[in-house]
Amino acid sequence: MKQLEEIQRWFGKTISQPLTEKQTLPKGCGADKYIAPSPTLNAHQRIELYYQQYWWRLLGSLQTNFPTVTRLFGYSLFQQQLAIPYLTQHPPTHWALCRLGETFPDWIAKNYQKEDRYLVLNAARIDWAAQKAFWVKDLPKVDFGKLSKNKILNTPLVLQPHLKLFSLQGDLFSFRETFLENEPDYYTSHPFPKMNFGECHFVLYRTLKNRVSWEKISLDELNFLKQFQKPRTIDQVCSIIEQTEKIVTDIPIWFQKWTVFEWFGLSLSSL
Amino acid sequence: MNKNIPKLGIGIGLRPVHYEEIFSLKPKIDWFEIISENYMVEGGKALENLDRILELYPVVQHGVNLAIGSPDALDWDYLKKLKALTRRTQTPWLSDHLCWGRLPGAHFHDLLPLPYTQEVIDYVAERARIVQDYLEIPFALENLSSYVAYHADQMPEWEFYTAVVEKANIHMMLDVNNIYVSSRNHGFDPLEYIKHIPMERVLQIHLAGHTDHVDYVLDTHDHPVRDEVWELYAAVWPLTGGVSTLLEWDENFVSFEQTWQEALKAKAFQKELVSA
């Protein structure tokens, strides 16, 4: 299998070279050694078709998975400043394109240092949370109606994996919702929507009808929900909240709503 | 070889842009083909939509990421998920491509052509046999549209394709548009290709549109099927004994109705061929 493996190694290395500005394959890739010319194209032109397809497909998928970040930069700058360097350093390893960009927010956190870093990084985090919420598996649901009061208080609960909490210096979620109403090219000649600043807290989740949604929550709700990022019983969480000496009277109302929304699952370790 | 394979008629590739029209109009379509990987997810809307489709139509699975000719070991996590989906869809067969697309640590998300050598026939056939045995349903490999030929090639594509499926004792998913596209890119006669295909192994035909760049042709699935491809279809379909036919349309989408009308041209061809 030496010959096959040699061809495949060369092929893979060639088509995954960083995409050039003109989107043409750099000369000197050694195509003549492996590829036969056609009556109309030489070996280099032939392998270049695969190079372009590789990049166009990945860039298209990353743009789909990160629609807010794409609009913040526009197609060209998104590709040049973020997507091509990222995909060069982190070529896809998984067969599912819906997972493309799983490490993109972390990559931005490490590599993007311009003054709009806060906006770009959080836009990427929200985009990824929304993407993942679309397909991630639910934990076993809790049927509170069938549990005794004692059991309800003592069963370890955990937030469903599709649910993600955000604490931000600005209403990035409302901004994003308006922003996504237009295609990226629209913003080359139009201003971005206005964003309200100030501390805001949000939860992003998948609805019972499998739509990805979000809502604004209070700091108290955020802190309460945060306790369930690890498996905990309601009793344990109430004890933690009591220790903060903060009087929170709305817990039963919140909890009623969250259980209707099925935001809690049974921790797999407790089953 | 194919006597237990159902003949489903004319189908089209199920794409999310058409969900709304399909769910509201419930059109009379013989069957849908799904891209397996789009539904090999853990939960959420995609599976909900698939279940709604399964209540209404027969579904056949077609994959794009098996990458059977890749140098690393078969991806058993992928195959396990694929098999679970076949149980959900009750697909009567399953197909993927005769290609490679993966190296250790990198997935290229493309259908990359293999060198046509005896060594590769042995390698791919063994893996294809394992896949079919594991999935426990008929498994077919599809011929590619390709844009390169290797110096290492020892035989024409049809000989390579036939040898792989015969050695593995699997089936063929014959893409007529791909035969045409490759014939233009490599300068062979598509009828010569068809002449050498063991038609008793063909369990499904694919049709699609392509983009002609004069110096080369790309398999883009974004146009109606070209006349040259319909001519090839007319030559192939009767030889297969009337296997299921599917239209793929993946870019520059048109309405569901227009897509279906394009697919129905195949039915008109079939009627003409049968009456002739």
Please explain how this structure is put together.
The complex is a heterodimer of chains A (271) and B (276). Chain A is mainly α and 271 residues long. Chain A has twelve helices and six strands. In chain A, strands 3-4-5 form a three-stranded antiparallel sheet, with helices on both faces. In chain A, strands 2-6 form a two-stranded antiparallel ribbon. In chain A, strand 4 and strand 5 form a beta hairpin. Chain A is elongated. The mean pLDDT of chain A is 94. With 276 residues, chain B is of the alpha/beta class. Chain B has one domain: Divalent-metal-dependent TIM barrel enzymes (TIM Barrel). Helix content of chain B is 40%, strand content 20%. Chain B has nine helices and 13 strands. Chain B has helices at 19-25, 45-56, 76-89, 118-135, 157-168, 176-186, 190-195, 227-236, 256-275, and strands spanning 10-13, 31-35, 59-62, 94-97, 100-103, 106-112, 139-142, 149-150, 171-175, 202-208, 211-212, 217-218, 244-248. In chain B, the strands form three sheets. Chain B has an eight-stranded parallel β-barrel, surrounded by five helices. A two-stranded antiparallel ribbon of chain B has the order 5-6. A two-stranded antiparallel sheet of chain B has the order 11-12. The chains are: A mainly alpha (271), B alpha/beta (276). Chains A and B meet through helix 1, strand 1, helix 3 and helix 7 of A and helix 2, strand 5, strand 6, helix 4 and strand 8 of B.
